[in-house]
Every structure is written in C-alpha cells, then in structure tokens.
Amino acid sequence: MRENRIRTIWAEGGKVLSGWVGLPTSLGAEIMANQDFDAVVVDTQHGMIGFQVAAEMLQAISTTAAVPLARAPWNDPSSIMKLLDAGAYGIVCPMVNNRAQCEAFVGACRYAPQGYRSFGPARGMLYGGEDYLEHANDTLVTLAMIETSEAVEKLDEITTVDGLDAVFIGPADLAISLGCAPSMEPTEKIVVDAIDAIQAAAEKNGVIAGVYCAAGAVAKRWFDRGFRFVAIGSDTRFLASGAEAEIKVARGG
Ligand code: 3PY
Ligand code: MG
Prior knowledge:
Blueprint: H1 5-11, E1 16-21, H2 26-33, E2 39-43, H3 51-61, E3 67-71, H4 77-85, E4 90-93, H5 99-108, H6 122-128, H7 132-139, E5 141-146, H8 149-153, H9 155-159, E6 166-169, H10 171-177, H11 189-205, E7 208-213, H12 216-224, E8 229-232, H13 235-250
Parallel strand pairs: 1-2, 1-8, 2-3, 3-4, 4-5, 5-6, 6-7, 7-8
The site of 3-hydroxypyruvic acid has 6 residues, from helix 10.
C-alpha cells in the first residue's frame, strides 16, 4: 500500500503542516496541494462541499505529494467511511467528547478486528493499492477534534483509545464551549489553560498534538512549542486576504 507520509514524518519525529480547503472546487484543491503542504484537509463540515465534489477534490490532491485528508461533517460512521472509500488517507473528526465517541470514530476508520469499517474502498484502493485491506488499519490516520469543555475534562479517556493517532484542537469551538468569543489565536486564560492541558495529555499518552490556526506565524509558534500537526486555514481566507492586499496596494492605501 502507498505509504502515508504523515505517519513517516511523525515516525521520524517531524512536524506535519497541512492546508485546509472549503471551497467546492477540485482545481482549487489541486492549486493548494501544489504548494508546499505535507497534507491538505478537505473540510466537509464547514466547507461548502458535498460528497461528490469532496471525492473529486481528493482525486485532485492525489496528483501531488500532499497527503489527502478529510474532515468528516460529524462523528458519523457513514460519512467517515464514504470519505475513506473516496481515498482520504486520514480523517479529522469534529467534536469528539469522550471515550465512547472516540472509540466510535476510530472504529469507523478501521476494519475488523480493530474496528467496524465496512469494505468497499473503490477509490481508496486506486490511490492506496491492491493490498489496501491488508494495510489500511496501520496506514490511515485518525485525528479526533478536541473542541468542547467536556472533551477537556475527559482528555485521559480520549487520548488512551487504541488506534487514535492525534488530537486536533478546534480553537473557535473550544473557546465558545468555555464561554469565550471564538478566536483562531486564543488569549483568554481558560482557553490557553485548556490548550496546555490538551497538549500535555497527548504527550503523556503518546498521541500527536495538533491544532488549527489561520496564519503562518501562529503555526510556527505551535510547532515551536511541540505541536506536530498544524493546519493553516483556509483557501477561502487566502483568496480574500490575497485580493485585499493587492487592492490596498492598487489604491495606494
Ligand atoms: C474550530 O476552531 O472550532 C474548528 O473546528 C477549526 O476548523
Ligand atoms: Mg470546530
């Protein structure tokens, strides 16, 4: 089976920088994947993306060295399994709040006996290879989003679930859940403390700590303090900020 570069980078002690796409366009996904990201996440939760377009976006990313990942719309086995069948090499799962939810998520990504994924990886096999079934459980990566106060209370039970590779912080939802305004760069003590606790639990229990952010400088800070999966979002924001910057220059502002 084709290697998952994310696993290789992690095994070597390295850091994964991921792009994040929410616009429903395979060309847009291809453009992002042709930049120097290690991976690109197709966001089917908050992106304006239906399943068919998501499959096409995964195809587009697969023409590059970037690892094709998807965020599921919810912790729902049906959509998780469809995205894996479409060739996602890993799933980011929103709102994983306790052990049972984490086991349900990881189980949906793994064939028996480790999980309960149903077999039919039409495109997964094209991208991964003929021996997909044999190696998928050890190749695909699972990233559970920690973005509620309940999840922060239950970090130990979540981060000790067998087969979980990484926790991934959603700073906006985490802030809201803790009674603060959503921010991509939280400064409130209660949110900062929660982020510290998430990273500590991940490190203690041998899973990768990951986080979403909106700027390269912030991503670098997360990397410098030991996070090993950072996603910078997103295509939408890059489009808007690129246009805004050029307009400002053109108008002499
Ligand atoms: C959050 O910040 O809540 C996210 O889910 C990031 O995409
Ligand atoms: Mg969120």
